[in-house]
């Protein structure tokens, strides 16, 4: 256990050093260095193996049970996850993620809707894409998405590589085309060099998707105060926070039935009957993905990691505060579901009848899930010469 912690510290230090040449630039208008070499070190939380692959290292890998001591147990292990990308692929993906060259009109980057300063969300009920158009749903956080078996609110993508194509080529989001994307990147000499460092065959659509996948898979958040508590430091949480956790995993509140530790999601679809925003058509969600009437109005159970930083809540930003979102579950099964549109509500949704104080304790506990220690560095310069996000 001590060696894992030491490795994490060393990885963080090495990652900071590998990016120092960017971090010391004083102006985004300076030319990107033509002799730049992509990082040869893995991001913090990863170990560089002999095959030049970054492998995840976490104390949760010491646990063998997927359920631990009941659904709300602390000694639970991680599900399968994506890793094994090279440091160069991850670093290239980092540049691409922040570069608006990926959009059709070169004004929108992945970071526009997944801003690291907002826990990789954008703080909007519905994201804004090309030509100021509103998207259909809010931007979910990317923290710990390496552990997800399905991506997008409606679980319509089974891999990072599949998922990234939706925003890239949607007219409501980045509004690009595969042909224009390839041409734009090939016209930039430094990108031709960087892609060769990361992939033997240089710039291809497959390699663009893979590098973006590599970067997203590196966004790991498993070092909150809750995690210290789970790994045995019971002084990491105070009495109110522990009380909130006990309510969270109780059979009365049943929060952990769906928001299961350690990821605080069960990677499943749930129909919970959130209220439909006014003047918006009903969003059928996962019904369309799986062609199942029973999943009408169903969406992926989101992680609660860094939840206090990702308002507004639900797939269309229904609730502006974490307390309001929590109280929604306490108001009873189906109380906000559309009356003329029957839904198959998830069986875990009940009527816990929690007190106001118990709701406050739940919110207090969820705030202990904050952890952005492994936040990647936002580039000061981009290979395209475009200005990175402020």
Question: How would you describe the overall organization of this protein?
Answer:
- The protein is globular.
- It has helices at 2-18, 20-23, 87-98, 110-113, 160-163, 165-169, 178-186, 189-198, 205-217, 225-230, 239-248, 286-290, 322-330, 356-366, and strands at residues 46-48, 54-56, 269-270, 299-300.
- The longest helix is centred in the first third of the chain and has 17 residues, at 2-18.
- α3 (87-98) packs antiparallel against α8 (189-198).
- The chain folds into two domains: 2-217, Cytochrome c-like domain (Cytochrome Bc1 Complex, Chain D, domain 2); 229-369, Cytochrome Bc1 Complex, Chain D, domain 2 (Orthogonal Bundle).
- It is built from 14 helices and four strands.
- A two-stranded antiparallel ribbon has the order 1-2. Strands 3-4 form a two-stranded antiparallel sheet.
- With 390 residues, it is an all-alpha fold.
- β1 and β2 (54-56) form a beta hairpin.
Task: Explain briefly what this protein structure is.
With 390 residues, the chain is an all-alpha fold. It is 31% helix and 3% strand. The strands form two sheets. It has a two-stranded antiparallel ribbon with strand order 1-2. The chain has a two-stranded antiparallel sheet with strand order 3-4.
CATH class category label of the largest domain: Mainly Alpha
- Assigned CATH superfamily of the largest domain: Cytochrome c-like domain
Rough outline: globular
The tally of strands reads 4
């Amino acid at each position: 256990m001590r060696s894992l912690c030491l490795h994490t510290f060393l990885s963080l230090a090495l990652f900071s050093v590998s990016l120092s040449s960017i971090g010391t630039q004083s102006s985004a208008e300076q030319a990107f260095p033509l002799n730049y070499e992509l990082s040869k070190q893995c991001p913090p939380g990863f170990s560089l193996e002999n095959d030049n692959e970054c492998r995840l290292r976490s104390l949760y890998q010491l646990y063998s049970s997927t359920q631990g001591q009941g659904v709300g147990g602390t000694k639970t292990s991680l599900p399968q996850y994506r890793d094994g990308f090279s440091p160069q692929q991850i670093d290239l993906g980092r540049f691409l993620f922040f570069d608006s060259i990926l959009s059709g009109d070169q004004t929108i980057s992945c970071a526009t809707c997944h801003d690291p300063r907002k826990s990789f969300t954008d703080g909007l009920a519905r994201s804004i894409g090309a030509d100021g158009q509103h998207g259909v749903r809010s931007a979910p956080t990317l923290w710990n998405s390496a552990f997800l078996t399905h991506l997008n609110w409606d679980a319509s993508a089974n891999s990072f590589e599949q998922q990234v194509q939706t925003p890239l080529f949607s007219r409501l989001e980045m509004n690009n085309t595969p042909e224009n994307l390839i041409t734009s990147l090939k016209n930039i000499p430094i990108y031709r060099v960087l892609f060769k460092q990361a992939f033997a065959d240089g710039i291809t659509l497959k390699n663009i998707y893979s590098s973006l996948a590599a970067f997203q898979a590196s966004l790991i958040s498993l070092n909150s105060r809750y995690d210290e508590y789970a790994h045995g430091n019971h002084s990491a949480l105070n009495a109110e926070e522990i009380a909130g956790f006990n309510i969270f995993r109780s059979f009365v509140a049943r929060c952990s039935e769906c928001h299961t530790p350690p990821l605080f999601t069960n990677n499943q679809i749930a129909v919970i009957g959130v209220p439909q925003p006014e003047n918006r058509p009903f969003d059928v969600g996962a019904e369309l993905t799986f062609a199942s009437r029973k999943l009408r109005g169903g969406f992926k159970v989101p992680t609660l990691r860094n939840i206090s930083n990702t308002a507004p809540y639900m797939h269309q930003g229904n609730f502006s505060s974490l307390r309001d979102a929590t109280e929604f579950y306490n108001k009873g099964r189906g109380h906000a579901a559309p009356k003329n549109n029957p839904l198959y509500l998830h069986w875990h949704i009940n009527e816990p009848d929690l007190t106001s104080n118990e709701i406050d304790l739940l919110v207090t506990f969820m705030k202990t899930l904050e952890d952005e220690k492994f936040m990647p560095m936002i580039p000061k310069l981009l290979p395209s010469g475009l200005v990175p996000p402020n």
